[in-house]
Amino acid sequence: MIEGFAIYLLLVVGVLLWRSRALRGPWWFLLRSFFPNWKFYDVVGHLPRVWLSWQDAAGQWSEPELWWPRQPMRWWRLFHNPQGNALLARQNLIDHWASDLAGSSVSSPQAAEVSGALVRRHLRHDLQQREPQAQAFRYVLRMEHPQHQGPDAVLQVWQSEVIPMERP
Amino acid sequence: MITGAALVRATEILCALSLLIQGWEYWSIRGLQTSQGPWAWSVQGRDVPPGGLHRLLDVVFADAVHQAHLLLRLVLAGVLAVWGGSLGLVLALWLGQVLFMIRWRGAFNGGSDFMTQVVLTGLLLGHGLMAWGRNDVAWPLGLGWIAVNATTSYVIAGWIKWLQPEWRSGAALAVFLDTGLHGPLPAHSVWRRPAVARAAAWAFMAWEATFPLAFLSVPMALLECAVALVFHLLVFRFFGLNRFVWAWLAAFPSVIWGSIWVGLSLA
């Protein structure tokens, strides 16, 4: 048991030192909590952002709106913050989708298809909660740099077709 | 007098508290993971290669079974808090954590899931080696694993930031605070002042990168953990990451244990 653990320890250190992107495959992605890299908020770079617009019952399209996790601060949420964490998980999903589309994900080559389908379901679900009268929606994924100005500040990497809302 | 047994028990209680907070949140948003919800397994499960394991996961992640698992996990966390750990109990929680990671595509809440995995692995190692009859190394390895990972988490986070010019100038602080769950910062926030942002960024980078000083003595470990708690509360204040507070809190008794172990080894 101790020998097995020592091998695991060496593997964790190896993954930390080695470029973890070199390790690809669905199980590396799904079980990555065994090999944490502890890099949080390290690099200021392009952020994947989804902008969504929807069509109302009169057929009018809304202005594109940034679908970004926001929540008013409440101290009691230190103990219970399901909605805030669900919003953050949605943004993590969008981040992974952007990585998958760019081909830089550690997951499988077909991961972009799964990520994209999950993002679409999330947007439909959240829009249904917020705008029950919405008839259809469409969205774009942009990589936006918070500091840059000029042509590389915003790069549009994906655009959806018009998606009708599904009603029971 | 702080004893090893007390630190093991403190780890179990704090880990259980973290799991109860996580479990209550998972239960509150269980609708997101039903077959009709946005995180439906029928879609997300395409990540998993076809085969016997996939078929097993189809059963485990069926709506009723998954929700029963959520409730069972709350009960198991309660047992860990009240009666303490055993090999079977900790193994069940550890396996459940692995299943949750798969169900949330690797992580629901990033680093807090990683640290929860680390703490459960440390407890599993300790109880596993005790059951194996290796009492001499059980908790030095179990708590040591948690202490090393907690320390690594701060040191790497600090050094990686230090390598970036935007962090050294302090400019990164306002950029990231603007993107936080509770952001953006007000236009006249004190964190937008370059001198304040630079001082705060350097203070946190220096504290993170020098976290191993915790192992010099028990008072140093208590001081480093107290600063860490303030740091995590600030992260919650601006980024809404409540789970990080509880996940790392569960690792602090191991850091204190590490400072005692290093002191005894050097004496």
Write the layout of secondary structure elements.
The complex is a heterodimer of chains A (about 170) and B (about 270).
Chain A: H1 2-17, H2 26-30, E1 47-55, E2 65-66, H3 82-102, H4 111-130, E3 136-144, E4 154-159, E5 163-164
Antiparallel strand pairs in A: 1-2, 1-3, 3-4, 3-5
Helix pairs in contact in A: 3-4
Chain B: H1 4-28, H2 41-44, H3 52-60, H4 63-83, H5 87-103, H6 111-131, H7 135-162, H8 165-169, H9 171-179, H10 194-209, H11 218-239, H12 242-249, H13 252-266
Helix pairs in contact in B: 1-4, 1-6, 1-12, 1-13, 4-5, 5-6, 6-7, 6-12, 7-10, 7-13, 9-10, 11-12, 11-13
Main beta sheet of chain B, described? none
Extract low-pLDDT stretches of chain B.
none
* Count of folded domains of chain A: 2
How many whole angstroms does the radius of gyration of chain B measure?
20 Å
Low-confidence runs of chain A (pLDDT<50, min 5 residues)?
A: none
* Beta-strand residue fraction of chain B: under 5%
Query: How helical, in percent, are the residues of chain B?
Result: over 70%
Distance between the termini of chain B: 17 Å
Number of strands of chain B: 0
Which chain pair has the greatest contact? A-B, 59 and 69 residues
CA-atom Rg of chain A in angstroms: 19 Å
Describe the structure in your own words.
The complex is a heterodimer of chains A (168) and B (267). Chain A has two domains: 1-40, no CATH class; 43-164, no CATH class. With 168 residues, chain A is of the alpha+beta class. In chain A, 24% of the residues are buried. In chain A, 37% of the residues lie in helices and 17% in strands. The mean pLDDT of chain A is 87. The N and C termini of chain A lie far apart (54 Å). In chain A, helix 3 (82-102) packs antiparallel against helix 4 (111-130). Chain A is globular. In chain A, strands 1, 2, 3, 4 and 5 form a five-stranded antiparallel β-sheet that branches. The longest helix of chain A is centred in the middle third of the chain and has 21 residues, at 82-102. Chain A has helices at 2-17, 26-30, 82-102, 111-130, and strands at 47-55, 65-66, 136-144, 154-159, 163-164. Chain B has 267 residues and is mostly helical. Chain B has one domain. Chain B is built from 13 helices and no strands. In chain B, helix 7 packs antiparallel against helix 10 and helix 11 (218-239) packs antiparallel against helix 12. The longest helix of chain B has 28 residues, at 135-162. Chain B starts with a helix and ends with a helix. At the A-B interface, helix 1, helix 2, helix 3 and helix 4 of A face helix 1, helix 5, helix 6, helix 7 and helix 9 of B.
